Pyridoxine 5'-phosphate synthase (Novosphingobium chloroacetimidivorans), 243 residues
Amino acid sequence: MVTRPLRLGVNIDHVATIRNARGGEHPDPVRAAQIVAQAGGDGITVHLREDRRHIRDEDLARVQAATGLPLNLEMAATDEMVEIALRHQPHAACIVPERREERTTEGGLDAAGQHNRLAPIVARLRDAGIRVSLFIAPEARQIEAAMQLGAPIVELHTGEYAHATGDQVAVELRRIADMAALAAKNGIEPHAGHGLTYDNVQPVAAIPQLAELNIGHYLIGEAIFCGLEASVTKMRELMDAVR
Ligand code: PXP
């Protein structure tokens, strides 16, 4: 088994959360994107939510222009978001389930149960040259659904792993490892993310098929104490140490 390089996509949504708390322009997610690039991040991830609680429409072009890094746009499977993605042409679009009342993306996308709704969306984004990713629970039926939809990437939801305690940690890690292997065997590039921290990232980063991790809340939280460049650099080092 060849271990691939593992990219780090940094989700900068919560820089915008802090900005929006006061309604002004500070702190600017553009500056965060520039620091991520300096610190060795491989991509910028943003989630334009339906309620615009953090990243706003006007942030997209500004963040895209701020660095040479690829932009990964997390988006709900709605016509509005597809139009925005087609207009902005991010490098990648990660389709996520979205419920207005949730605090964060709490579960994976039901790719298996929503084939007919997702198929035209995946096709439109793919036809526009955008790399489509589906944010799914680490379950075989969701990988199979991603294959049927022709999605080139799946992002495996690591939330259950991150929240597990005791013996359940190993069980959840095994699910992610098995599903990363299943995806790769079927020609789908596996990514992972959600709830990853300095303490829990390494067992996930060691899964050889994974090509990218997307990490946000913890890195922005740590940046309050040590700065964003340092938090991204440390996460990179922890990931690199197990590849
Ligand atoms: N990947 C996806 C698809 C997400 O929706 C999120 C949360 O926005 C993340 C990764 C990052 O999760 P966290 O902020 O917990 O690191």
In short: The pocket of pyridoxine-5'-phosphate is lined by residues 11, 47, 74, 94, 96, 104-105, 135, 155, 193-196, 214-218 (CB under 6 Å). The first strand starts at residue 7 and ends at 11.
